[in-house]
């Protein structure tokens, strides 16, 4: 099921299971996993996309092999609060995942996460070339960590 409201999400999903965070992109996905206690988001991989069918299969394989209970997907709302063209692409993609695998997906406002990931890399003195290779999975971890932090308030 697709959730856009965080309260509804927490009320209707098993929050004791791990979560998979996704920073959606047209060419690649950043993927992060929560730890077993759902306290910490851990950058996992940057996945180079192939085609929608394979991409969905790879994501579900990561999901199931980690005994996850839900996906947290970054939703690229514009700074003015309006939905972007990319939002439509995210919605189309996540609806295909839901249709095929009947999983729970929460769309989380991802404003500023890429900028935060870039800043983290810069402050850690990671060179730009290497930073570009990890920014997406760090962004996915930031998206997931925001949700995990909010979840603590609901427990």
UniProtKB/TrEMBL annotation:
* One Pfam family named in its UniProt record: RuvX
Q: What is this protein called?
A: Putative pre-16S rRNA nuclease
Matches recorded under HAMAP family: Nuclease_YqgF
Q: What does this protein do?
A: Could be a nuclease involved in processing of the 5'-end of pre-16S rRNA.
Task: Work out whether the entry's keyword set contains Nuclease.
Answer: yes
Keyword list (alphabetical) reads: Cytoplasm, Hydrolase, Nuclease, Ribosome biogenesis
Enzyme Commission no: 3.1.-.-
Q: Name one GO molecular function term.
A: hydrolase activity, acting on ester bonds
Q: Where is the YqgF/RNase H-like domain?
A: 17-117
Annotated family: Belongs to the YqgF HJR family.
Which GO biological process annotations does it have?
rRNA 5'-end processing
Cellular component per GO?
cytosol
Q: Which CDD domains match?
A: YqgF
From the Swiss-Prot or TrEMBL record, state where the protein is found. Cytoplasm
């Amino acid at each position: 099921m697709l959730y856009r409201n965080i309260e509804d999400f927490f009320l209707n999903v098993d929050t004791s299971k791990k979560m998979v965070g996704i920073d959606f992109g047209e060419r690649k996905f950043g993927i992060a996993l929560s730890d077993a206690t759902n306290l910490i988001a851990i950058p996992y991989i940057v996945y180079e996309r192939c085609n929608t069918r394979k991409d969905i299969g790879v994501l579900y394989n990561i999901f199931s092999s980690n005994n996850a209970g839900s996906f947290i997907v970054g939703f690229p709302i514009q700074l003015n609060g309006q939905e972007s063209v990319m939002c439509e692409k995210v919605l189309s993609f996540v609806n295909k995942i839901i249709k095929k695998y009947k999983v729970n997906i929460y769309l989380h406002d991802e404003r500023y996460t890429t900028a935060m990931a870039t800043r983290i890399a810069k402050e850690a003195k990671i060179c730009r070339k290497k930073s570009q290779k990890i920014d997406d999975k760090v962004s996915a971890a930031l998206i997931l960590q925001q949700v995990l932090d909010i979840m603590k308030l609901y427990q």
